[in-house]
Amino acid sequence: MSVPDAKSRRLLIVLMNTDPRNPEELAAPFYHAAVAAALDYEVDVVCTATAGKLMRRGVADAITIKPGHPKTVRDWIREAHEQGARFWACPANLDLFDMAESDLIEECSGLMGAATMIQDIMDGEYRVLTY
User: Fold this and answer.
1) Strand, helix or coil at 23?
2) Its pTM surpasses 0.85
3) What are the mean pLDDT values of the chain's consecutive 10-residue runs (131 residues total)?
């Protein structure tokens, strides 16, 4: 049995229960990604299920966490990305939401499928947070 290294330097944040229709759910995962990246951890954020919509150009730009506040969800994503966090879209979401890779935001590094994500987790390379 593979046991995760106690000194793991990789964090995988999986957004699958976070719904863009509930903006108050959106700040924490991106803030945690920014903080972990600023602490020099290798951070990957996978947006899947309904949260996958956030990787579509224009969606995160139109959502604010707090009504009346100018900071958008895209700003939160951008800040985490600037700290070094990498964002990934789920390939199944492209079909589900009628998207193409060209529809993805600039901060998105590409696609991470279920097999890659599960293999990396099971190999013990990541610590995992889910939202």
Assistant:
1) helix
2) yes
3) 62 96 95 98 97 98 93 97 98 95 98 94 92 96
Give strand ranges (E) for the chain: 10-15, 42-47, 86-89, 108-111, 127-130
- Structural domain boundaries of the chain? 10-130
Token pair, residue 51, equals 């949260």
DSSP-H helix ranges across the chain: 27-38, 73-83, 91-96, 114-122
C-alpha span between 131 and 124 (Å, rounded): 20
- The class that CATH gives domain 10-130 is alpha beta
Q: Tally the C-alpha atoms within 13 A of residue 120's C-alpha that lie toward its C-beta.
A: 19
Please count the other Cβ atoms lying within 10 Å of the Cβ belonging to residue 54: 27
Report the pLDDT value the prediction gives residue 115, as an integer from 0 to 100: 95
Amino acid at 36: A
